[in-house]
Design brief:
The complex is a heterotrimer. By secondary structure, chain B is mainly α. Chain B is built from 5 helices and 2 strands, in the order H-H-H-H-E-E-H. Chain B has a domain of about 80 residues: 3 helical TM bundles of succinate and fumarate reductases, CATH 1.20.1300. The longest helix of chain B has 28 residues. Chain C is α+β, with helices and mostly antiparallel strands. Helices cover about 30% and strands about 15% of the residues of chain C. In chain C, a hairpin with a 2-residue loop joins strand 6 and strand 7. In chain C, helix 2 packs parallel to helix 6 and helix 6 packs across helix 9. The radius of gyration of chain C is 21 Å and the shape is elongated. The termini of chain C are far apart. Classes of the chains: A mainly alpha, B mainly alpha, C alpha+beta. Chain C: Its EC number is 1.3.5.1.
Chain lengths: ~140, ~130, ~260
């Protein structure tokens, strides 16, 4: 790659003049998460974040028994993947670029921090579903 | 390779986006993930409560009803709709769909995505809304 | 009717710092900003420097910032401005003098993406008895036509905060032009260009701010081109992963 016309040996460009084979993965997760955020989350936030605590849902709609049955199942596992995990990666991507936009931290570190946090939280969320299914 | 590199300006100051309405709206779009993250953390707390048992679950529902949490989740709802409005119009530009050699009109793709939002909301109503 | 326009002057021979200078001049409904600058140069202050050539939005040389937004002087009409009119050199480029900027970096980015047809076959001598021409259907033309309208005016670079934050970013026009050739049925240079685009300073620096497409005087929509380029770069990466042998980019064999 050092043969590229623009970069001089030893310049910072030469070091960064390499293929970004990880970026398609982050961008793919960001895009998929963006679709979930836009299509699924309005309804999820409306029902679980607003109507449920306001008591506007029927009393047994999300009772402990019903919520457990709904979440700790294979559809529940997929629900968490689409409503928690992918949007987490979407948020991680935007936060990473947002930090670059306002010149906070180094991109290399922010990248590890953000995608790492999204991956950890995702595993925790999916693990909770599995734990609930096993118990 | 020996071509002299051209002159470079120092990078923009971190307040560059305050100079234009367009850039402020861009930053607002990017910031929609902040209330999203808050809601997702709430949701995960609810999952932990569900694993712990019925009392924890009731406690979590109460926590979700506290004014500050409710206000932040209403903000998240607004953010998700603003995100949808900005995200849907990008889709046909990133992936122009062609059917039988003809490109689908942009507004049809955007309308289709909004229809998706409505269908998901109806699905939730079917699942949780009926007494 | 008279209007006042303020021009950001920078004359390194006389003063180290830039300064604002206001000019009052007669305008009518057909007065373009370029007409106004020409009036200033001819009637009011001959020391004012700016670039222009065609007066009809095809040469792409008269780009300036008008109230902070990049515009072509010849395509901007003073009738559309009621309040103050502040003219500055194009943002994100080093200023040489007054409204003249150094666009070398843009030209470097442009050259780096090989914005020309690349054909695998070696050049054959032209035979008038049996002339060979490229064939292209209207549908094939439609795939890239929009992206071929770029006039290299550089307005999109002044609109792009990612270029302002990191001048190594190849930027909207260069990537749009790369995409234009990648989409061209006559071209076979996609692999070489992908090695350039699939870098952090290639398509991946873009966050789809979208202002580049807003200011483009030829409606090229470079933001769409860059983001379609991300899809292409993702495909390129998948192919590279499965073949495994192109991880170092295709550029080597051709340079």
């Amino acid at each position: 790659m050092s043969k590229q016309a623009m970069s001089k040996p030893g310049s910072p460009q030469a070091a960064s003049h390499q293929q970004a084979f990880d970026e398609p993965l982050w961008w793919g997760l960001f895009s998929a998460g963006g679709v979930c955020f836009a299509v699924l989350l309005p309804a999820v936030i409306l029902f679980i974040g607003v109507l449920l605590p306001l008591g506007l849902l029927p009393a047994d709609a999300l009772s402990y028994e019903r919520a457990t049955a709904l979440l700790f199942s294979v559809p529940g596992f997929l629900f968490v993947g689409a409503v928690v995990c992918l949007p987490l990666f979407h948020a991680a991507h935007r936060l990473r670029h947002g930090l670059f936009d306002i010149s906070v931290g180094r991109d290399g570190f922010n990248k590890k921090l953000m995608y790492g946090a999204a991956a950890l939280l995702s595993m925790l969320a999916l693990g909770l579903v599995v734990a609930g299914m096993l118990s | 390779m020996n071509k002299t590199s051209s002159q470079r300006l120092p990078p923009l100051k971190r307040n560059w986006w305050l100079k234009h309405r367009f850039f402020k709206l861009y930053m607002l779009r990017e910031a929609t993930v902040l209330p999203l993250v808050f809601f997702l953390l709430c949701l995960m707390a609810g999952m932990v409560a569900l694993v712990q048992g019925a009392d924890s679950w009731q406690g979590w529902v109460g926590f979700m009803g506290s004014p500050v949490v409710l206000a932040l989740n209403l903000l998240a709802l607004a953010a998700s709709l603003y995100h949808a409005a900005t995200f849907f119009v990008l889709f046909p530009r990133v992936m122009p769909l062609r059917i039988a050699g003809r490109s689908l009109p942009d507004n049809m793709i955007v309308a289709g995505q909004w229809a998706g939002v409505v269908v998901v909301a109806l699905l939730f109503f079917w699942l949780l809304g009926r007494a | 009717m008279n209007k006042t326009i303020s021009v950001k002057r920078y004359v390194p021979d006389n003063a180290a710092e830039s300064y604002w200078q206001a000019f009052e001049l007669p305008v009518d409904d057909s007065t373009s900003l370029l007409d106004a600058l020409n009036h200033i140069k001819e009637q009011l202050d001959s020391t004012l420097s700016y670039r222009w050539s065609c007066r009809m939005a095809i040469c792409g040389s008269c780009g300036v910032m008008v109230n902070g937004i990049p515009k072509l002087g010849c395509k901007t009409f003073l009738r559309d401005y009621d309040g103050e009119i502040r003219i500055e050199p194009l943002a994100h480029f080093p200023v040489q003098r007054d409204l003249v900027v150094d666009m070398e970096i843009f030209l470097e980015h442009l050259a780096a993406v090989k914005p020309y047809l690349i054909d695998d076959d070696p050049v054959k001598p032209f035979d008038p008895q049996a002339p060979e021409t490229y064939r292209q259907s209207p549908a094939q033309l439609a795939r890239y036509k929009q992206f071929a309208n770029c006039i290299n005016c550089g307005l999109c670079y002044s609109a792009c905060p990612q270029f302002g934050l990191n001048p190594e970013f190849r930027g909207p026009a260069a990537i749009a032009l790369a995409h234009r050739y990648n989409q061209d049925s006559r071209d076979h240079g996609k692999k070489q260009r992908m090695a350039e685009l699939n870098r952090h300073e290639g398509v991946w620096s873009c966050t789809f701010v979208g202002f580049c497409s807003k200011v483009c005087p030829k409606h090229v929509d470079p933001a769409a081109a860059v983001n379609q380029g991300k899809v292409e770069a993702a495909k390129h990466t998948l192919i590279a992963l499965f073949k495994g042998d192109e991880m170092n980019g295709e550029g080597k064999a051709h340079e």
